[in-house]
Amino acid sequence: MQTLSQLSEIIESDNRINRRNFLKSLVLAGGLALVPSLEARAGETLEEQSRSSTDSALEARINSYIKSKRSSGYLGATDETSITVYDIENSRKIVSINEDARRMAASTIKNFVMLAIFDQITSGRINYNRRVKNLLEAMIRHSNNSATNSLINILGGPTNANNIIKSKYSVFNETRIVEYIPRGGRTYKNTTSSHDLNIFYNQLWRNNLPYSSEMKRILSLPKTDRLFDRTCIPRGVSQYTKSGTVYGLVADSGILVTRDVQGRQHPYAITVIIEDKTKSYSKNRSRAGTWTRRRAELIRDISEGVYDFLYRSHIGKPYMCRQHNGRHLGGSQ
After folding, report:
1. Which of 35, 206, 271, 283 is packed most tightly, with the most Cβ within 10 A?
2. 7, part of any domain
3. What is the mean pLDDT of residues 86-100?
């Protein structure tokens, strides 16, 4: 039987290994020892989360909607999308669209900076004092880049921050912290994927990450996003979200929690990323506001469609909002 050390060397030498085989190998070696904070809990395993295929009516509907936006010219030929939706309550992935594609992270990388900070607090290397707390709240709530850079500096720089994630949370295959946020916010080198963000939020909800309750509190602070703000989703829905924007990428990711008539919670994780790498070139930065606004609205449309789909699943009838009268993603579902 291979040792965990041998398995680690194999994984490092062959970056083609996928999450599912990686997790199987860890089980055969004696457990999820390399990712102890992500150990599987009742009814849901990391292996199940790692699957990158689904067969759902919602995924088909979203694909059709995106295709229609391309045909109309609303989305350009160079726009690429990554979308993951996971029904946390039922441990079921219901949308997986290009979820393993490595994308520019923009401000969604701040989820992983926060994770690295709380990991180091747990190990006793950082004190959770008022300064660190204020920096975390500014980074997540206001997406403050100076606060982010201060936290990365506390971690010892981008390389050290990245090493914490790679060594302790190796299921995040596409996430890389390689730079401070540059002046002007034009960060193009840090990366992640909708799959990685889905795993982050899923495990956060299940309290499998260090200081999960505190991270959820910070992520729930009032702020602007594209999954909930300016959508038809009702005000009573709880949100734990972090958006990201740089010219060339618009993204949002998080957990929304619906409640049925009995007051029972129904949480789901959703990530939508729209990327056009050609827009990161300085010569292509004209009309940045229009480009960003259109893609933000598309994310809102998709979020509304996901909410409607899950509302039907839990409540048994369409979500009849005033704006759309039960018709989301371009039509009834």
Report:
1. 271
2. no
3. 96
Residue 160 Ramachandran class (φ > 0 left, ψ -120 to 50 alpha, else beta): alpha
Number of independent structural domains in the chain: 1
- Nearest residue to 110 via CA among 241, 242, 10: 242
For residue 206, is it within any domain? yes
Q: Is residue 77 in a domain?
A: yes
DSSP single-letter state for residue 22? H
Span 48-61, average pLDDT:
72
Q: Is residue 3 part of a domain?
A: no
pTM over 0.90: no
- Report the SS3 class of residue 88: coil
CATH of the domain at 47: 3.40.710.10
At 32, phi and psi to the nearest 5?
Answer: -85, 55
Range of the domain at 220: 35-315
Give yes or no for residue 15 having a pLDDT over 60: no
| C-alpha dihedral, 52 to 55 to 59 to 65, nearest 10° | 120
Residue type, 99: E
Please state, in angstroms and rounded to a whole number, the distance separating the CA atoms of residues 245 and 248: 8
How much is the pLDDT for 325?
Answer: 73
CB 85 within 8 A of CB 266: no
Residue bearing the bigger pLDDT, 59 or 24 = 59
81: Cβ–Cβ under 8 A, 6 or more apart, which residues?
A: 66, 97, 98, 272, 273, 274, 275
Tell me which H or E stretch contains 191: strand 191-192
Closest alpha carbon to 208 in 44, 4, 26, 27? 44
